[in-house]
Amino acid sequence: MLAAARELISEKGYAGFSVEEVARRAGAGKTTIYRWYPTKADLFIAIYTMERSTFVTVPDVGNLVEELVQYTTSLWRFWSSHPAGAALKGLIAEAQGTEEALGALRDKFLPDRTADVRHILTSGAARGEICLEEVDDKVSLWVGFSWFKLLIGELHDEDAIGPVMMQISGVPRHVQS
Predict the structure, then answer these.
(1) Are 65 and 169 contacting, i.e. CB atoms less than 8 angstroms apart?
(2) Domains (range + CATH), the chain
């Protein structure tokens, strides 16, 4: 079922993605798919999670700025080279118009997808690089920056990552990490 869904998202993107077509390709009933994935957004999140875990790793190099740069670069390259990046833009757009997609994005996608950045930031706090109380705000800043670049089609602008990760980490630009 997930293989059929992954194939469909690769061919048609998020807008052309439907549970009905996944069911047809998988030779499964729609009710079976809806039992596991109540919405189109839920099914996409399952595919995205599976694909992303193959391509994006969480670095542990002992330096917050460098970890954020490596992670963000890896994620942006995944978004740029994989249909999941374009599909994520579709999910974000759909979430602006439907409560189901917004709920899936907010309650299912974001907590899992921000766990890696939260871990990196929490590790940085444990090393004394930032205050633990700042982690939630810094996660929001990171998501805002990354999604902004995704949505305006500037994932190729990897030179922007370092300076922004320094700002998120609270490191003045004139200080080398």
Answers:
(1) yes
(2) 39-169 (1.10.357.10)
